[in-house]
Amino acid sequence: MIAPILVTRLRQTLPRTPQQTILATVLVLGALALSKAEDRSIAQGGRVPLRVLTLNMYGLRYPPRLGWMADESDCAERFRAVGRRIRYASPPYDIVAVQELYRAPDLHIITCDPAPFLEALEQTGEGFGRLRLILFSPKGEAWKGEVDGGIGLLTPHSVEESEAVRFAGSGGPFFAARGFIFARIRITESNLKVDAYVVHLSPGRQNSEQRKRELETLSKAIAEKSSASGNPVLVLGDFNIAGPPVAGSEYATILRQMGHPRDLWLENGAPDSGFTYDCFGNAVASLRGCDYEARIDYVWIVTDPRLSQSDYEVNASQGGGVRRVEWYTDGPKPLPVSDHFGVEASLWIERKGAGMPLKGPQQ
Protein backbone atom coordinates (compact mmCIF):
# COMPACT_ATOMS: atom_id res chain seq x y z
CA MET A 1 0.00 0.00 0.00
CA ILE A 2 1.22 3.51 -0.81
CA ALA A 3 1.02 5.80 2.20
CA PRO A 4 -0.70 9.14 1.35
CA ILE A 5 1.44 12.24 1.87
CA LEU A 6 -0.47 15.49 2.24
CA VAL A 7 1.28 18.51 0.75
CA THR A 8 0.10 21.96 -0.15
CA ARG A 9 2.10 22.51 -3.30
CA LEU A 10 3.41 20.16 -5.95
CA ARG A 11 6.64 22.06 -6.25
CA GLN A 12 7.52 21.09 -2.69
CA THR A 13 8.06 17.55 -3.99
CA LEU A 14 10.72 18.70 -6.46
CA PRO A 15 14.46 18.64 -5.74
CA ARG A 16 15.73 22.03 -4.60
CA THR A 17 19.02 21.58 -6.41
CA PRO A 18 20.02 19.39 -9.37
CA GLN A 19 22.03 17.25 -6.98
CA GLN A 20 19.02 16.38 -4.80
CA THR A 21 17.15 13.28 -5.83
CA ILE A 22 13.97 11.95 -4.36
CA LEU A 23 13.63 8.28 -5.24
CA ALA A 24 10.19 7.49 -3.84
CA THR A 25 6.62 6.93 -4.88
CA VAL A 26 4.67 10.07 -4.09
CA LEU A 27 0.95 10.42 -3.54
CA VAL A 28 -0.03 14.07 -3.59
CA LEU A 29 -3.40 14.91 -2.09
CA GLY A 30 -4.62 18.46 -2.70
CA ALA A 31 -7.90 20.26 -2.38
CA LEU A 32 -10.31 19.41 -5.19
CA ALA A 33 -11.76 22.40 -7.04
CA LEU A 34 -14.34 21.56 -9.67
CA SER A 35 -16.43 24.36 -11.14
CA LYS A 36 -19.76 23.68 -12.79
CA ALA A 37 -19.61 20.05 -11.72
CA GLU A 38 -22.27 17.93 -13.38
CA ASP A 39 -24.47 15.53 -11.48
CA ARG A 40 -22.85 12.10 -11.84
CA SER A 41 -25.43 10.24 -9.77
CA ILE A 42 -26.25 6.74 -10.98
CA ALA A 43 -28.72 5.90 -8.24
CA GLN A 44 -31.70 5.78 -10.63
CA GLY A 45 -30.02 4.13 -13.59
CA GLY A 46 -28.31 7.28 -14.78
CA ARG A 47 -25.01 7.28 -16.66
CA VAL A 48 -21.66 8.59 -15.47
CA PRO A 49 -19.32 10.12 -18.08
CA LEU A 50 -15.65 9.22 -17.72
CA ARG A 51 -12.80 10.66 -19.77
CA VAL A 52 -9.46 8.83 -19.65
CA LEU A 53 -6.05 9.26 -21.28
CA THR A 54 -2.87 7.20 -21.51
CA LEU A 55 0.41 8.71 -22.73
CA ASN A 56 4.02 7.54 -22.70
CA MET A 57 5.82 10.87 -22.19
CA TYR A 58 9.26 9.82 -23.49
CA GLY A 59 11.25 10.86 -20.45
CA LEU A 60 14.64 10.62 -22.17
CA ARG A 61 16.76 13.45 -23.50
CA TYR A 62 18.07 13.13 -27.06
CA PRO A 63 20.92 13.16 -27.50
CA PRO A 64 22.25 12.58 -23.97
CA ARG A 65 23.84 15.79 -22.72
CA LEU A 66 27.53 16.05 -23.52
CA GLY A 67 28.97 19.47 -22.83
CA TRP A 68 26.67 22.10 -24.31
CA MET A 69 24.98 19.78 -26.82
CA ALA A 70 21.42 20.94 -27.46
CA ASP A 71 18.47 18.77 -26.50
CA GLU A 72 16.88 17.97 -29.85
CA SER A 73 13.96 16.28 -28.10
CA ASP A 74 13.15 19.53 -26.20
CA CYS A 75 12.31 17.81 -22.90
CA ALA A 76 11.24 20.95 -21.03
CA GLU A 77 8.81 22.25 -23.65
CA ARG A 78 7.37 18.80 -24.31
CA PHE A 79 6.69 18.17 -20.65
CA ARG A 80 5.33 21.69 -20.13
CA ALA A 81 2.92 21.23 -23.04
CA VAL A 82 1.61 17.94 -21.64
CA GLY A 83 1.03 19.47 -18.21
CA ARG A 84 -0.91 22.37 -19.68
CA ARG A 85 -3.01 20.14 -21.91
CA ILE A 86 -4.02 17.98 -18.96
CA ARG A 87 -4.70 20.90 -16.63
CA TYR A 88 -6.85 22.84 -19.07
CA ALA A 89 -8.58 19.90 -20.79
CA SER A 90 -12.26 20.49 -21.46
CA PRO A 91 -14.09 18.43 -20.45
CA PRO A 92 -11.53 17.55 -17.81
CA TYR A 93 -9.88 14.15 -17.60
CA ASP A 94 -11.03 11.80 -14.86
CA ILE A 95 -8.05 9.43 -15.10
CA VAL A 96 -4.70 10.14 -16.75
CA ALA A 97 -2.08 7.37 -17.06
CA VAL A 98 1.50 8.40 -17.88
CA GLN A 99 4.66 6.42 -18.41
CA GLU A 100 8.34 7.43 -18.64
CA LEU A 101 8.03 10.31 -16.19
CA TYR A 102 11.37 9.65 -14.52
CA ARG A 103 12.99 11.12 -11.43
CA ALA A 104 16.56 9.90 -11.69
CA PRO A 105 19.94 10.80 -10.10
CA ASP A 106 21.62 11.51 -13.43
CA LEU A 107 21.44 15.34 -13.36
CA HIS A 108 19.16 15.11 -16.41
CA ILE A 109 22.01 13.98 -18.64
CA ILE A 110 19.86 11.12 -19.96
CA THR A 111 16.44 11.62 -18.38
CA CYS A 112 14.14 14.62 -18.65
CA ASP A 113 13.55 16.83 -15.61
CA PRO A 114 9.91 16.28 -14.48
CA ALA A 115 9.68 19.81 -13.01
CA PRO A 116 8.18 21.56 -16.10
CA PHE A 117 5.38 18.98 -16.24
CA LEU A 118 4.55 19.26 -12.53
CA GLU A 119 4.79 23.06 -12.53
CA ALA A 120 2.42 23.28 -15.52
CA LEU A 121 -0.11 21.18 -13.63
CA GLU A 122 0.24 23.60 -10.69
CA GLN A 123 -0.25 26.83 -12.64
CA THR A 124 -2.64 29.35 -11.13
CA GLY A 125 -5.62 30.81 -12.93
CA GLU A 126 -8.40 29.09 -14.79
CA GLY A 127 -8.05 25.34 -14.91
CA PHE A 128 -8.95 22.06 -13.37
CA GLY A 129 -7.82 22.66 -9.83
CA ARG A 130 -5.60 20.35 -7.86
CA LEU A 131 -4.97 16.76 -8.87
CA ARG A 132 -4.24 13.68 -6.85
CA LEU A 133 -1.07 12.16 -8.22
CA ILE A 134 0.76 8.88 -7.85
CA LEU A 135 4.16 9.35 -9.50
CA PHE A 136 7.49 7.69 -10.31
CA SER A 137 6.32 4.14 -9.54
CA PRO A 138 7.33 1.41 -8.98
CA LYS A 139 10.35 2.00 -6.79
CA GLY A 140 13.65 0.90 -8.33
CA GLU A 141 16.43 -0.84 -6.46
CA ALA A 142 18.66 2.19 -5.95
CA TRP A 143 21.56 0.13 -4.63
CA LYS A 144 21.78 -1.41 -8.11
CA GLY A 145 21.68 1.96 -9.82
CA GLU A 146 18.14 1.22 -10.96
CA VAL A 147 15.73 4.09 -11.65
CA ASP A 148 12.16 4.30 -10.37
CA GLY A 149 9.63 3.17 -12.94
CA GLY A 150 8.35 6.50 -14.26
CA ILE A 151 4.68 5.47 -14.09
CA GLY A 152 2.09 7.98 -12.92
CA LEU A 153 -1.64 8.27 -12.36
CA LEU A 154 -3.48 11.59 -12.14
CA THR A 155 -7.07 12.15 -11.08
CA PRO A 156 -9.17 14.95 -9.54
CA HIS A 157 -11.18 12.33 -7.64
CA SER A 158 -10.62 10.56 -4.33
CA VAL A 159 -8.16 7.67 -4.31
CA GLU A 160 -9.49 5.21 -1.76
CA GLU A 161 -6.79 2.57 -2.19
CA SER A 162 -3.57 2.33 -4.19
CA GLU A 163 -0.51 0.17 -4.66
CA ALA A 164 2.56 0.14 -6.88
CA VAL A 165 3.86 -3.26 -8.02
CA ARG A 166 7.29 -3.92 -9.51
CA PHE A 167 7.62 -6.67 -12.10
CA ALA A 168 10.21 -9.25 -11.03
CA GLY A 169 13.10 -9.42 -13.47
CA SER A 170 12.54 -5.95 -14.91
CA GLY A 171 14.94 -3.03 -14.74
CA GLY A 172 18.56 -3.47 -13.75
CA PRO A 173 21.63 -1.20 -13.46
CA PHE A 174 21.03 2.07 -15.36
CA PHE A 175 17.55 0.89 -16.38
CA ALA A 176 14.10 1.68 -15.02
CA ALA A 177 11.99 -0.74 -13.02
CA ARG A 178 8.79 -1.77 -14.77
CA GLY A 179 5.46 -2.51 -13.19
CA PHE A 180 1.99 -1.10 -12.66
CA ILE A 181 -0.05 1.15 -10.40
CA PHE A 182 -3.42 0.08 -9.03
CA ALA A 183 -5.85 2.73 -7.77
CA ARG A 184 -9.45 2.48 -6.62
CA ILE A 185 -10.97 5.84 -7.52
CA ARG A 186 -14.26 7.21 -6.21
CA ILE A 187 -15.79 9.46 -8.87
CA THR A 188 -16.92 12.77 -7.39
CA GLU A 189 -20.65 13.34 -6.88
CA SER A 190 -21.54 9.73 -7.62
CA ASN A 191 -21.53 6.35 -5.93
CA LEU A 192 -19.27 4.96 -8.66
CA LYS A 193 -15.83 3.56 -8.00
CA VAL A 194 -13.40 2.55 -10.75
CA ASP A 195 -10.48 0.13 -10.42
CA ALA A 196 -7.72 1.55 -12.64
CA TYR A 197 -4.41 -0.10 -13.54
CA VAL A 198 -1.60 1.89 -15.20
CA VAL A 199 0.91 -0.43 -16.86
CA HIS A 200 4.32 -0.25 -18.53
CA LEU A 201 5.65 -3.57 -19.78
CA SER A 202 9.34 -4.14 -20.52
CA PRO A 203 10.54 -3.03 -23.97
CA GLY A 204 12.70 -4.90 -26.48
CA ARG A 205 11.94 -7.57 -29.04
CA GLN A 206 14.12 -9.99 -27.06
CA ASN A 207 11.95 -9.60 -23.93
CA SER A 208 8.78 -11.43 -25.00
CA GLU A 209 9.11 -14.03 -22.22
CA GLN A 210 9.64 -11.26 -19.67
CA ARG A 211 6.48 -9.51 -20.88
CA LYS A 212 4.56 -12.79 -20.65
CA ARG A 213 5.60 -13.09 -16.99
CA GLU A 214 4.64 -9.45 -16.41
CA LEU A 215 1.19 -10.04 -17.89
CA GLU A 216 0.78 -13.07 -15.62
CA THR A 217 1.63 -10.88 -12.62
CA LEU A 218 -0.84 -8.22 -13.75
CA SER A 219 -3.60 -10.75 -14.31
CA LYS A 220 -3.14 -12.30 -10.87
CA ALA A 221 -3.22 -8.84 -9.27
CA ILE A 222 -6.44 -7.89 -11.06
CA ALA A 223 -8.06 -11.14 -9.90
CA GLU A 224 -6.96 -10.50 -6.33
CA LYS A 225 -7.92 -6.84 -6.13
CA SER A 226 -10.88 -6.48 -8.47
CA SER A 227 -12.67 -9.80 -8.99
CA ALA A 228 -14.96 -9.18 -6.02
CA SER A 229 -15.02 -5.36 -6.01
CA GLY A 230 -17.99 -5.00 -8.35
CA ASN A 231 -16.24 -1.97 -9.91
CA PRO A 232 -15.49 -1.37 -13.59
CA VAL A 233 -11.87 -2.38 -14.33
CA LEU A 234 -9.80 -0.21 -16.68
CA VAL A 235 -6.25 -1.04 -17.74
CA LEU A 236 -4.26 1.70 -19.46
CA GLY A 237 -0.68 2.01 -20.61
CA ASP A 238 2.24 1.11 -22.83
CA PHE A 239 2.36 -2.65 -23.39
CA ASN A 240 5.28 -2.65 -25.87
CA ILE A 241 3.24 -5.24 -27.81
CA ALA A 242 1.86 -4.48 -31.26
CA GLY A 243 -1.86 -4.84 -31.78
CA PRO A 244 -4.09 -4.84 -34.86
CA PRO A 245 -3.96 -3.80 -37.63
CA VAL A 246 -0.36 -5.10 -37.58
CA ALA A 247 -0.40 -7.46 -34.62
CA GLY A 248 2.39 -9.82 -33.66
CA SER A 249 1.98 -13.08 -31.80
CA GLU A 250 2.27 -11.37 -28.41
CA TYR A 251 -1.09 -9.65 -28.83
CA ALA A 252 -2.67 -13.06 -28.27
CA THR A 253 -0.71 -13.29 -25.01
CA ILE A 254 -2.43 -10.14 -23.76
CA LEU A 255 -5.83 -11.55 -24.64
CA ARG A 256 -5.09 -14.90 -23.02
CA GLN A 257 -3.61 -13.54 -19.80
CA MET A 258 -6.25 -10.82 -19.31
CA GLY A 259 -9.25 -12.95 -20.24
CA HIS A 260 -9.92 -11.38 -23.64
CA PRO A 261 -10.43 -7.80 -22.44
CA ARG A 262 -12.16 -5.26 -24.64
CA ASP A 263 -9.66 -3.34 -26.78
CA LEU A 264 -11.53 -0.04 -26.98
CA TRP A 265 -9.64 1.19 -30.04
CA LEU A 266 -10.75 -1.83 -32.07
CA GLU A 267 -14.23 -1.75 -30.60
CA ASN A 268 -14.65 1.87 -31.58
CA GLY A 269 -14.06 1.05 -35.26
CA ALA A 270 -11.71 3.98 -35.87
CA PRO A 271 -11.04 4.52 -39.58
CA ASP A 272 -7.25 4.78 -39.26
CA SER A 273 -4.54 2.41 -38.01
CA GLY A 274 -4.14 4.00 -34.59
CA PHE A 275 -0.37 3.59 -34.53
CA THR A 276 0.83 5.12 -31.28
CA TYR A 277 4.52 4.61 -32.09
CA ASP A 278 5.10 5.96 -35.59
CA CYS A 279 8.64 6.47 -36.83
CA PHE A 280 7.35 8.01 -40.06
CA GLY A 281 4.73 10.37 -38.66
CA ASN A 282 6.29 11.40 -35.32
CA ALA A 283 9.35 13.67 -35.47
CA VAL A 284 10.44 12.83 -31.90
CA ALA A 285 10.29 9.07 -32.55
CA SER A 286 12.33 9.50 -35.74
CA LEU A 287 15.17 11.25 -33.88
CA ARG A 288 16.64 7.84 -33.09
CA GLY A 289 16.39 6.63 -36.67
CA CYS A 290 13.70 3.95 -36.20
CA ASP A 291 11.82 2.53 -39.18
CA TYR A 292 8.52 1.00 -38.05
CA GLU A 293 5.05 1.85 -36.75
CA ALA A 294 2.89 0.00 -34.23
CA ARG A 295 -0.10 0.35 -31.92
CA ILE A 296 1.35 -0.44 -28.51
CA ASP A 297 -0.62 1.88 -26.16
CA TYR A 298 -4.05 0.71 -25.02
CA VAL A 299 -7.22 1.35 -23.07
CA TRP A 300 -8.73 -2.00 -22.03
CA ILE A 301 -11.94 -2.92 -20.21
CA VAL A 302 -11.56 -6.20 -18.28
CA THR A 303 -14.68 -8.39 -18.34
CA ASP A 304 -13.56 -11.96 -17.62
CA PRO A 305 -15.50 -13.10 -14.50
CA ARG A 306 -12.28 -14.54 -13.02
CA LEU A 307 -10.86 -11.01 -12.98
CA SER A 308 -13.88 -8.73 -12.78
CA GLN A 309 -17.50 -9.21 -11.82
CA SER A 310 -18.48 -5.63 -12.38
CA ASP A 311 -21.98 -4.34 -11.73
CA TYR A 312 -21.61 -1.82 -14.57
CA GLU A 313 -21.65 -1.49 -18.34
CA VAL A 314 -18.81 0.58 -19.83
CA ASN A 315 -19.13 1.88 -23.37
CA ALA A 316 -17.38 4.47 -25.48
CA SER A 317 -19.29 7.45 -26.83
CA GLN A 318 -20.20 7.17 -30.47
CA GLY A 319 -18.46 9.29 -33.08
CA GLY A 320 -14.85 9.54 -31.92
CA GLY A 321 -15.25 8.20 -28.41
CA VAL A 322 -11.77 6.63 -28.68
CA ARG A 323 -9.09 8.56 -30.51
CA ARG A 324 -5.36 8.97 -30.95
CA VAL A 325 -4.04 12.08 -29.19
CA GLU A 326 -1.49 14.16 -31.10
CA TRP A 327 -0.22 17.09 -29.03
CA TYR A 328 2.58 19.46 -30.02
CA THR A 329 4.78 22.04 -28.35
CA ASP A 330 4.26 25.75 -28.98
CA GLY A 331 6.62 28.00 -30.90
CA PRO A 332 7.96 28.31 -34.44
CA LYS A 333 9.25 24.72 -34.53
CA PRO A 334 6.59 22.59 -32.81
CA LEU A 335 7.45 19.02 -31.90
CA PRO A 336 5.20 16.15 -30.83
CA VAL A 337 5.11 16.07 -27.02
CA SER A 338 6.46 12.50 -27.03
CA ASP A 339 7.76 9.76 -29.28
CA HIS A 340 4.37 8.13 -28.60
CA PHE A 341 0.93 9.42 -29.46
CA GLY A 342 -1.60 9.09 -26.66
CA VAL A 343 -4.95 7.29 -26.55
CA GLU A 344 -8.04 8.99 -25.18
CA ALA A 345 -11.44 7.47 -24.46
CA SER A 346 -14.72 9.20 -23.59
CA LEU A 347 -16.86 6.64 -21.80
CA TRP A 348 -20.32 6.19 -20.34
CA ILE A 349 -20.75 3.99 -17.28
CA GLU A 350 -24.12 2.71 -16.09
CA ARG A 351 -25.47 -0.06 -13.91
CA LYS A 352 -26.22 -3.34 -15.65
CA GLY A 353 -29.90 -3.85 -16.26
CA ALA A 354 -30.64 -0.14 -15.95
CA GLY A 355 -32.69 -0.20 -19.14
CA MET A 356 -30.27 2.02 -21.06
CA PRO A 357 -28.82 1.11 -24.48
CA LEU A 358 -25.67 -0.96 -24.13
CA LYS A 359 -23.90 1.02 -26.83
CA GLY A 360 -22.75 4.50 -25.96
CA PRO A 361 -25.19 7.26 -26.97
CA GLN A 362 -24.30 10.34 -28.93
CA GLN A 363 -22.85 13.07 -26.72
Describe the structure.
The protein is of the alpha+beta class. The chain has a single domain (47-351), classed as Deoxyribonuclease I, Chain A (4-Layer Sandwich), CATH 3.60.10.10. It has 5 helices and 16 strands. Strands 1, 2, 3, 4, 5, 6, 14, 15 and 16 form a 9-stranded mixed beta sheet that branches. The protein is globular, with a radius of gyration of 19 Å.
Largest sheet descriptor: 9 strands, mixed
Strand content: 25-35%
Secondary-structure element string: EEEHEHEEEEEHEHEHEEEEE
Overall outline? globular
Structural class: alpha+beta
Going by CATH, the homologous superfamily would be Endonuclease/exonuclease/phosphatase
Blueprint (SSEs and pairs):
Elements: E1 5-6, E2 26-29, E3 48-56, H1 75-87, E4 95-99, H2 115-122, E5 132-137, E6 151-155, E7 158-166, E8 179-186, E9 193-200, H3 208-226, E10 233-243, H4 250-257, E11 262-263, H5 264-268, E12 277-278, E13 293-301, E14 312-316, E15 322-325, E16 342-351
Parallel strand pairs: 1-2, 3-4, 9-10
Antiparallel strand pairs: 2-5, 3-16, 4-6, 5-6, 7-8, 8-9, 10-13, 11-13, 12-13, 14-16, 15-16
Helix pairs in contact: 1-2, 3-4
